[in-house]
Specification:
Number of strands: 16
CATH architecture of the largest domain: 3-Layer(aba) Sandwich
Number of helices: 27
Helix content: 40-55%
GO cellular component, one term: periplasmic side of cell outer membrane
Structural class: alpha/beta
Largest sheet: 7 strands, mixed
Keywords: Cell outer membrane, Cell shape, Lipoprotein, Membrane, Palmitate, Peptidoglycan synthesis, Signal
Strand content: 5-15%
CATH class of the largest domain: Alpha Beta
Radius of gyration: 27 Å
GO biological process, one term: regulation of cell shape
Protein name: Lipoprotein
Shape: globular
GO molecular function: enzyme regulator activity
Number of domains: 4
CATH superfamily of the largest domain: Response regulator
């Protein structure tokens, strides 16, 4: 199977649009996500009744359930008195910040009153304000807040460590990597434990790995501090001897002679010559593994086109070479393609695309170089590897819909979902996470997509038949017909609707008709075709949904990028546009993977969303939220 080169495939977009629309849905729901049937949960889940605990909150943070953690801290705050109350509230804000709920943090953080309390609490609040400011691009504001925090007296080493960590993030955001390195060097004085020291040094080293060699040399010329000079000389040695472990080993021996008391840990030094995969210096060769000649060709081409568009937009100097390898129709052959890509010089592999091919690669070959899988997997590679996973699983969107509804104040939800495996997965994802948040699912109801009239499932969801039965009983008793408007159940505060645009346009008017139009309705990106269509989407008015900034931006950087990159790409404003964005971010994030994995709560601002990494290397998307108004999606708040 020959490698597939970008220059050999330019302009191959001859597929007709109607077929694209049909296959787009198939690809999104049948290919990128495993299609096993998941058992349906009971129609009602009880709220959590166990008492809140700091341990359960910390555990939720560890597993990336940040909104769950924030809820636990808020429950603890409800039963606490100052200053513990304010401490728990600040921990809740920190969890929401880690979870990308910036609007919630912005609204709530200022309301936490710390007057007359320990200055350490005010310092923590300033640190959180600084982290929020970094995310929002207000970097000088962030540094100002951190200066205010550092001036407060009697701060603990742990809090001073947080201040310098946040300063490092602000310096990086300002494009000053060496300022960040200095802050992390100072931070090491305040961290406790060998593991935390090693983590801090790893983060420092990842920054130096990504810095251009000439900038490191210039900084070294000016460095007077011995610790900083040692780090810079170590980075120069690593840059000068990439791929030559013998020469690098000799350089490290000389470095040890010059810096015998340098704090750089032995474990970090050993990794430089151990042959573990690393993104040292500039990426020069990328392999992209896609099933071009398969039933999923259209999906693969959309990812490819987005990937190559970002590659073409990169500065020509230093632009890596991209080789596309065709996986073909048989996922079992993916390991052979992966091994060939590595053998032919790939420094990093992007792909395979698809669950079966991904699992086959991990089981068969291990990972010889850093790899960004374009699917989520439960398999674990043997041996040392830098493995990252990036996809568009709809279950992630359902869980974020649960979080959005919860943060908006809803505690009693009803779920309406389509029959079949996809609908059951969406219902399960929402209801399970809803329960984790301590909220109650009071009803769930499936509907058959093949039917054009959804009045019956909507009525059952809202308990209208029970209301109609009461009316019939009263009429029978009185012997006369009554004027009657059926009342929906009163215990529903919001509705989660799992539906695409075609079915959502038919279901939302039914909710309005049965007097549930005032209830907030939450949905996933599937409710929006990707193209503004006010004539048809007016029936979706009021529905809130999470989607990519790429699909929602009407102005600003992302809108300009769309106009510049897509040109006459034939599948704009279809389901395939989301796969195009997946390809774009798959390319753009490569130089940042090490930083995101090493930095505390770091995020990458992509076109698919704000991206963060969990401890298993999975990239999580923090969606933007919009509401249909006059048939057009309008952003609700800043991301």
């Amino acid at each position: 199977m020959p490698p597939y080169h970008p220059t050999e495939t330019a302009g191959d977009h001859s597929t007709g649009l109607p077929r694209v629309l049909r296959l787009g849905v198939l690809v999104l729901f049948g290919f990128l996500v495993a299609c096993e049937t998941i058992p349906v949960s009971p129609p009602s889940l009880p709220p959590r009744t166990e008492p809140a605990s700091a341990e359960s909150a910390a555990q939720a943070e560890t597993t990336g359930e940040y909104v769950v953690a924030a809820r636990e801290y808020e429950r603890l705050a409800e039963d606490a008195t100052p200053p513990e109350k304010q401490r728990y509230l600040l921990q809740s804000m920190e969890a929401l910040l880690k979870g990308g709920q910036y609007g919630q943090v912005r609204a709530r953080l200022a309301a936490i009153d710390l007057r007359g309390l320990d200055p350490a609490l005010l310092a923590r609040k300033h640190v959180l304000e600084a982290r929020l400011a970094v995310v929002e691009g207000e970097h000088q504001t962030a540094l100002k807040r951190l200066d205010e925090a550092a001036k407060l007296r009697n701060l603990s080493p742990a809090l001073l460590s947080e201040i310098h960590e946040a300063r490092a993030q602000a310096e990086l955001a300002l494009g000053n990597p060496f300022g960040a390195v200095r802050e992390l060097i100072v931070r090491e004085q305040y961290v406790a434990g060998a593991e935390t020291v090693a983590e801090n040094q790893t983060r420092l080293w990842r920054i130096l790995e990504q810095a251009p060699r000439e900038q490191i040399r210039s900084e070294r010329y000016l460095a007077s501090d011995a610790v900083l000079a040692g780090w810079l000389d170590l980075a120069l040695a690593a840059h000068d001897h990439v791929g030559n472990t013998v020469a690098l080993g000799q350089a490290l021996n000389e470095w040890r002679r010059l810096y015998p008391a340098h704090p750089a840990g032995a474990a970090l030094l050993e990794t430089l010559t151990a042959g573990a995969p690393a993104l040292v210096g500039r990426i020069e060769r990328i392999a992209l593994l896609l099933p071009i000649t398969s039933d999923y060709r259209i999906a693969a081409e959309a990812v490819r086109d987005g990937f190559l568009a970002m590659h073409a937009a990169a500065p020509e100097s230093g632009r890596p070479k991209v080789t596309i390898y065709d996986l073909g129709p048989d996922p079992a052959l993916a390991p052979q393609v992966y091994e060939r890509a590595v053998r032919e010089g790939a420094q990093i592999v992007v792909g395979p695309l698809g669950r079966e091919a991904t699992d086959a690669v991990i089981r068969a070959s291990g990972l010889a170089v850093p790899t960004l899988l374009l699917s989520h997997t439960e398999e674990h590679p043997p041996g040392p590897a830098r493995l990252y996973q990036f996809g568009l699983p709809p279950e992630q969107e359902a869980r974020q819909a649960a979080e959005r509804a919860y943060l908006d104040g809803c505690r009693h939800a009803a779920v309406l979902y389509p029959e079949g495996a996809w609908g059951e997965r969406m219902m399960n994802a929402f209801m399970t996470h809803w329960q984790r948040l301590g909220a109650l699912a009071v009803a769930s109801q499936s509907y058959a997509e093949r039917n054009g009239d959804y009045s019956e499932p909507v009525k059952r969801l809202l308990n209208i038949p029970e209301s109609e039965a009461r009316k019939s009983a009263v009429e029978k008793k009185l012997g006369q017909r009554l004027q009657f408007d059926p009342r929906p159940r009163q215990d529903v505060e919001c509705i989660f609707l799992a539906a695409d645009a075609r079915h959502g346009r038919l279901i939302k008017p039914q909710l309005n008709y049965f007097r549930a139009g005032g209830l907030p309705v939450y949905a996933t990106s599937h409710i929006y075709t990707g193209k503004a269509d006010p004539v048809h989407d007016v029936d979706l008015d009021g529905v809130q949904f999470g989607d990519m900034p790429w699909m929602l931006a009407q102005a600003g950087r992302i809108a300009e990028l769309r106009n510049r990159l897509q040109g006459d790409w034939p599948h704009v404003h279809t389901d395939l546009d989301r796969l195009y964005a997946l390809g774009m971010d798959s390319y753009a994030i490569l130089p940042h993977l090490e930083r995101i994995s090493a930095e505390h709560a770091a995020r990458f601002a992509g076109v698919t969303s704000g991206l963060s990494l969990d401890r298993d290397g999975r990239l999580h998307r923090q969606l933007s939220w919009a509401r249909f108004r006059s048939g057009v999606p309008r952003l609700i708040d800043r991301p």
